[in-house]
Design goal:
- By secondary structure, the protein is α+β, with helices and mostly antiparallel strands.
- The protein is 38% helix and 20% strand.
- The chain contains 5 helices and 5 strands, in the order βααβαββαβα.
- Strands 3-4-5 form a 3-stranded antiparallel sheet. A two-stranded antiparallel ribbon has the order 1-2.
- Helix 3 packs across helix 4.
């Protein structure tokens, strides 16, 4: 099995309690891989390089002021439903700091651009926008 790494913000238990029932219904396979989270950078370094990368991440994160994340409503990509942060800027700034230190790893392999992200917590994945539109959440 090939493993991939990522830098994520794992949601606290109170958010997991809300997100997991949605994920169980609308993105069960993803939920089995990782609990409710906000992705900062995926994919990240190869597993063999993870130890060294973690030391670098530790130094980067030590320079980032702590911040609160409040999820405030739903957002959508064509085949995805997500919970959106009220203020995405601290998450985007964290991404920028980490991505600047690891430029060889564009977010989502560059599929949606390579220098920015839309912070979100996925709670539903669908085969089409029409299927997403029929979901009851």
């Amino acid at each position: 099995m090939d493993f991939e790494t990522a830098v994520v913000i794992i949601a606290p238990h109170t958010v997991q309690a809300f997100a997991i029932p949605l994920m169980r219904q609308y993105c069960f396979e993803s939920m089995l891989r990782v609990p409710a989270h906000i992705t900062i950078l995926f994919p990240f370094v190869p597993v063999d390089d993870l130890d060294a990368a973690c030391w670098k991440l530790r130094d980067i994160c030590a320079g980032i002021a702590s911040f609160e994340v409040t999820l405030d409503g739903y957002g959508h990509f064509p085949t995805t439903t997500y919970l959106k942060p009220r203020d995405p800027e601290p998450i985007k700034a964290t991404f920028q700091s980490i991505h600047a230190a690891f430029p060889d790893y564009p977010p989502y392999r560059g599929a949606f651009g390579s220098d920015d992200i839309t912070p979100h917590m996925t709670v539903g994945e669908f085969r089409s926008a029409a299927e997403r539109g029929q979901a009851l959440y």
